[in-house]
Amino acid sequence: MSGFERGTDGPKVIVAGVDGSASSLRAAAYAAGLARRQNALLALVYVQPVLAAGAAMGAPVAVATDEIAEGLVAEIRESAERVKEIFQVRWEFHTFRGDAYAGLVSAADELKADAVVVGASESAGHRFVGSVAVRLVKAGRWPVTVVP
């Protein structure tokens, strides 16, 4: 039997969604610990929001989200460098475009994720309409860990 099979020998790829928020950075740290213990690849994913053309008129949205991605990569590299003598983990940084849920689903599919780790939503509105984390859990396609 050839092909991809999830969950047979522990996770090989752990996807962590990062957006610069405190909860997403805690999720990345938690996922890094999991990846280290499981000798898995940590795939850090930033989903760049895409606004409708009318909403983005005159606003350099792509430039701003590119700068966020660059800032996240710099922060992650700096953190990895600080702990490299005591904490080794293989990691990659990926950016996807779209809304956070669709972007994380695309990332998890494309990277053949065995697990997804996200931070709890810091938005009060998500209590009513459902957070990205809740939508990922309901999708039922990967084990999802939500870090407060």
UniProtKB/TrEMBL annotation:
Chain ranges of the UspA domain: 12-148
InterPro entries hit by this protein: Rossmann-like_a/b/a_fold, UspA
Pfam family, one: Usp
Family: Belongs to the universal stress protein A family.
Protein name stated in the entry: Universal stress protein
Organism: Streptomyces roseicoloratus
Lineage: Bacteria, Bacillati, Actinomycetota, Actinomycetes, Kitasatosporales
